[in-house]
Amino acid sequence: MTTSRFSSDVYAQRLAAAARATAEAGLAGLVITPGYDLRYLVGSRAQTFERLTALVVPAAGDPTMIVPRLELAAMKESAVGELGIALRDWVDGDDPYALVAAALGGSSVAEKSAPLAVAGKSAPLAVAGQSAPLAVAVTDSMPALHLLPMAETLGVVPVVATDVLRTLRMIKDAAEVEALRKAGEAIDRVHARVPEFLVPGRTEADVAADIAEAIVAEGHSEVAFIIVGSGPHGADPHHECSDRELRSGDIVVVDIGGPYEPGYNSDSTRTYSIGEPGPDIARRYAVLQRAQRAAVDAVRPGVTAEQIDAAARDVLAAEGMGEAFVHRTGHGIGLSVHEEPYIVAGNRLELQEGMAFSVEPGIYFPGEWGARIEDIVIVTADGAQSVNNRPHELVVVPVS
User: What are the CA-CA distances from residue 188 to residues 238, 241, 297, 357 (Å)?
Assistant: First the structure.
């Protein structure tokens, strides 16, 4: 049976690591409103409304959860209570931004921060002689509705917390790895059923509806995305589905995924042929299969993200298909379908054990057909563990 969140020990370790990273970055603290960062740190699925909900994590001291009183019951379903985080609830008419300032140490935040003008007002000057003025970091999903009044109250323009939380979220802990593994197994079971849906005369939308039902039936909480690209639509990497009817001879790209409790996403692509493919299609697909295998085989700690991209791209280029590969080789995955690290040229980030990302080279021939192979892999001490284990060959769907 799946659970809606991890144990409180997992979140306690994440909060402690976030506080350390905040201090090392020279920040006064983090202010995290609802979104993936809040879910990562305390397991809360709160949503952003006009009333402020925010987790305040000071660099030194205990965290505080600021929450509207009418949302208090829902917040208690997270790990906040088990972690002993102080709850500061507020009602309409109160100033929640003053509560944020108090949780960060009161007026000391503004006093220690760099000079700033907010909405035409002069912010307090930095402390004389202080070599590194402090600032506050906020999650990148904080709406302006809250960011602007909070900045005015604190006397600082916050920086984005992405740099503080990036490494924490990129390197998956054991609980996250297990969650991704289960999500991968579930989406593999859906792909095993896809051939039965690919019947000539049915539309892409018909197939997508069947897949959506299967995704939920296999344990996902919802559907994040479904791509059914048949024939020429397969040459559009981000095609979703349409009323085009499937035909014998079509090559069909099926890219599917969604969150599996406690909210970690699956994402896998396989390509299908309705009837036996022609020899040229089979030849080109075999090259794509080699390219995807080369990229997975290249994954290990110390290798850069761009080297993984090059491993796939070089195989295709050597066979004259470099121009047919029009996107990056992969993206990180976790609570969000797309997150860091990005497996793309120019990204010199060195891979570390625990990073999780897709390896999904594709080839696209506009007006004709396309193909893509995608697995989610997790970096291990000496290579990569794939959470997807369906065959990589072009899946031939018999035509009666």
Answer: 21, 20, 21, 16
pLDDT at 121 over 50: no
Q: Are residues 99 and 90 in contact, defined by beta-carbon separation less than 8 angstroms? A: yes
Sequential DSSP letters for 260-287: ETTTEEP-EEEEEEESPPPHHHHHHHHH
Percentage of residues in the chain having pLDDT higher than 70:
92
pLDDT band at residue 106 using 50, 70 and 90 as cut-offs: low
**Host domain of residue 152:** 8-168
In a shared domain, residues 176 and 315: yes
Q: What is the mean pLDDT of residues 242-258?
A: 98
Judged against a pLDDT cut of 80, whether residue 382 lies above it is answered with yes
Q: Are strands 121-122 and 117-118 parallel, antiparallel or unpaired?
A: antiparallel
Upstream peptide bond of 262 is cis (omega within 30 degrees of 0): yes
Burial class (CB in 10 A: 0-12, 13-18, 19+), 397: buried
3 part of a folded domain:
no
Q: What is the pLDDT of residues 133-159, one digit of tens each?
A: 468 999 999 999 999 999 999 998 899
Is the per-residue pLDDT at 319 higher than 70? yes
317 shares its domain with 175: yes
Q: How far apart are CA 311 and CA 332, in angstroms?
A: 17
- 252 & 162 share domain: no
Residue with tokens 């970091």: 137
Give the C-alpha separation, 141 to 80, whole Å.
20
| H or E stretch at 186 | helix 174-197
Specify the residue for token string 């009817």. Answer: 245
Residue 2 lies in a domain: no
Query: Could you tell me the CATH number of the domain that includes residue 17?
Result: 3.40.350.10
Q: Is residue 34 within 8 Å of residue 46, measured between CB atoms?
A: yes
The DSSP secondary structure of 313-369, one letter per residue, reads HHHHHHTT-GGG--S-SEEE-SSSSSEEEEE-TT--PBP-TTBEEEE--EEEETTTE
Phi–psi pair at 229, nearest 5 degrees: -110, 105
pLDDT band at 4 (very low <50, low <70, confident <90, very high): confident
136: β partners? 29
One-letter identity of residue 288: L
Burial of 104 (0-12, 13-18, 19+ CB in 10 A): buried
